[in-house]
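Review form for a predicted model. The reviewer records the input and the model, then writes brief findings.
Reviewer: anonymous (R2)
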Amino acid sequence: MGARPSTEAEREPLLTPSHAETNSNPVNSRVYGRRWLVLTLFSLLGLMQGMVWNFWGPIQNSAVRAYGFAKADIAVLVLWGPVGFVPWLLFMWLMDKKGLRASLLLSGFFMLLGAVLRSIPLTDEHLRRWFIHGGQFLNGLAGPTIMSAGPYLSTTWFAPDQRATATAVASLFCYLGSAASFLVGPLVVPAPNDTLTGTTMAAAVSDNSIRDRIQLVMYAELAVIAVLFAAVLLYFPSRPPMPPSVAAASQRLSYRSSICRLLSNLRFLMIALAYAVPTGVIAGWAGVLDMVLTPAKVSQVDAGWIGFWSTVGGCVFGVAMARFADSIRGMLKLILVLMLAGASLSSTWFTLTCLSRVTHLPATAAILYTSCILVGIFINSSVPIFFELLIETVYPVPEGITCGVVTFLGNLVTGLLLFFLTFYCTELSWLNWCLTGSCLFSLVLILFFRESYDRLYLDVFVSV
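Model under review:
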C-alpha cells in the first residue's frame, strides 16, 4: 500500500542528444531567464482568481444591503469556488496530455467570461443575482489549474535549488489575491452604516452608492483579467527547449497509472488528508471571516484587515520557508510539524478568546488580531511545503496530477463546510472549533508520516 521507490526505467530521461556524434555524452540541463516571465503570468492569474473568489465575503454587509443577498447567499457565492473543482479530472487530463499552456488558456477564458458575466449592469435584480452566481461559478472552474499547477510549473522551468521557492510563489499568489480582496473590498465599498442618516432618501442614496462602488471594483477586475488573458495568449510556452533538471526530463507514469498509484498509496492518502483538512477548513473560514468576527464586535473594515494580514503573512512566511527548504533539503516533514504545531496553538487561542464569556479570557482587539493572523500565517505558509513533500512521496507520478488530487480534496472539505454553513449560519462558534480540530488532526497525521525523497535522489545522485 505504501509508496515504492522509482525504478531505473522510470528515471530514464525522455530527452536524448540531437546529434549522433554526441550520443556518448549526457544531455545538458539548462535554465532560461524567461522562466520568471512564465512564473509571473501564472502567478498574476492566480492573484485575480483568488480576488474574484473572495470578493463577496469581506463586503457581505454591503452586498446584503445593495443586492438583497441573505447571509446564506454569501456562503453560496463563496461555495462556487469549491464547486468549480467538480471537473478537476478533465483539467488534470488536459494538463497531462496537452501541457500547461492549453490548461491555463482554458482556465483564463473561464475567468474572463465569468468576470464579464457578473459585471453586466442589469436592472432586473433577480436576473442580476443569477448572473453574479454564474460569474462566480465560471471563476471557480479556473481553480483546478490555478491552484494545482504550481509544482508542475516549477519542475518544468526551474532548477532543483529554486524549485520549492517557485512552487511557493505560484501556489500562494491565489491566496494573496484572497488577501487583496480583504483590503480592496472594505476600503472601496462603504459599509451600509457609513452613510445611513435615518431617512428613507438617505438610505436609498446609500444603497446606490454601495452598488456603484461594487460595480467599479468588478469592472477593474474584469480589465486586469482581460489583459492577463491576452498576455498568456500571446506568450506562455508549455515547457522550455531544454529541461532544467534530471527530474524534469525523466519519464513519468501515464494518467491512468498515476490515479491508480495515488489511490492505492497509504502514505499519500495520509499526507493528502493532512493537507486537505486544515487548508480546506481555513479557506471556508476565511471566506466568511466577517461573519465569524461580527459577534466579537469587529467591524467589516477591521475584519478585512485581519483577513488581509493573516493571508499576506502566510504568503511571505511561506516563500521564506520554501527558500529555506531549497537551501537545506530533506527537512520538509520537520518544517511541517513546526508549522502545524503553531497553527494548533494559535487556533486554540483564537477559539477560546471568541468564547470569552465562558473562558473569561481577555478578548481585546490586539489579541483577536494576533491570534487570527498567526492562524493564517502557519496554515497558508504550509501549502508549498505540503506540495513539495507530496511530489517527493509519489514520484514519478506527474506533479499536476498529484497536486490536482489534493487540491480537489481540500476544496471538497471547503465545500462541505460552506454547505453546512448555509444551514447553520446564525451561530458560528462551531466553525472556530472545526478550525482548531483540523490543525490538530493534521499534526497527528504528519507526526506518524514516513517521509521519502525519490525525486531529490534523482536530481542529486543520477546524472543525465
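Findings: The longest helix spans residues 200-234.
Further findings: Confidence is low (pLDDT under 50) at residues 9-25, 194-205.
Recommendation: see findings above.
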